[in-house]
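Lab channel / #folding
Pinned by the channel admin:
"Please post every new chain as: sequence first, then the structure tokens as a reply. Keep commentary short and put observations after the output so the thread stays searchable."

First post following the new format, from NK:
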Amino acid sequence: MKVTIDREECIECGTCYADCPEVFEESPEDFFSQITEEYRVDDDPAVGEVPEDLEECAEDAAYGCPVEIIHVES
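Reply from TO:
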């Protein structure tokens, strides 16, 4: 599953990495949400490829985001 984050729209609430810390984390540079290094595509912190066993977790984080900036695609 592909996961993308509109990082410039992030409000730094922490919901995504509280819901799914395997896939999302806070960036130490700008404090916005980012994809964990393990699942990044081309080292882009805003784009990830999530394995099947973490799809539900990533979807929960996307649906829990109060500003709806996390997008998941099968």
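NK: The chain has a mean pLDDT of 97.
TO: also worth noting, The two ends are 5 Å apart (CA to CA).
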